[in-house]
Amino acid sequence: MELTENIWKSRMDTDNKIRKNYIYNVTYQILNLIAPLLTTPYVARVLGVEQIGRYSYISSITTYFITLAILGSTPYAQREIAYLKGNKEEYSQLFWEMVTFRALTVLVSCLLYGIIIISAPAEERLLYIIQGINIILVAVDITWFFQGLENFKKVVIRNMIVRCASIVLIFLLVKKESDLAIYMLILSGISLVGQALIWGYLKRYLEPVSIKKINIKQHFKGIMVLFVPTIAVSIYRAFDKTMIGIFTNSSSENGYYEQADRIVQMCITVPTALSTVMAPRIASNMAKKNIDMVNEYMCKTYEALLLIAMPLGIGIFCTSNMIVPWFLGEQYYKVITLLKIFSIIIPIIALSNASGAQYLIQAREEKVYTKSVFLGAIVNFGLNLLMIPRMASVGAAIASVIAEFSILFYQILYICKKNRTLKLKQLFNNLRICIISCMCMTLIVMLIKTFFQPNFLGTICVAAVGACTYGVMLLILKEPMVCNILDAIMGKLCRK
Question: What is the 3-state secondary structure (H, E, C) of the chain?
Answer without folding.
Answer: CHHHHHHHHHHHHHHHHHHHHHHHHHHHHHHHHHHHHHHHHHHHHHHHHHHHHHHHHHHHHHHHHHHHHHCCHHHHHHHHHHHHCCCHHHHHHHHHHHHHHHHHHHHHHHHHHHHHHHHCCHHHHHHHHHHCHHHHHHHHCCHHHHHHCCCHHHHHHHHHHHHHHHHHHHHHHCCCHHHHHHHHHHHHHHHHHHHHHHHHHHHHCCCCCCHHHCCCHHHHHHHHHHHHHHHHHHHHHHHHHHHHHHHHCCHHHHHHHHHHHHHHHHHHHHHHHHHHHHHHHHHHHHHCCCHHHHHHHHHHHHHHHHHHHHHHHHHHHHHHHHHHHHHCCHHHCCHHHHHHHHCCHHHHHHHHHHHHHHHHCCCCCHHHHHHHHHHHHHHHHHHHHHHHHHHCHHHHHHHHHHHHHHHHHHHHHHHHHHCCCCCHHHHCCCHHHHHHHHHHHHHHHHHHHHHCCCCHHHHHHHHHHHHHHHHHHHHHCCCHHHHHHHHHHHHHHHHC
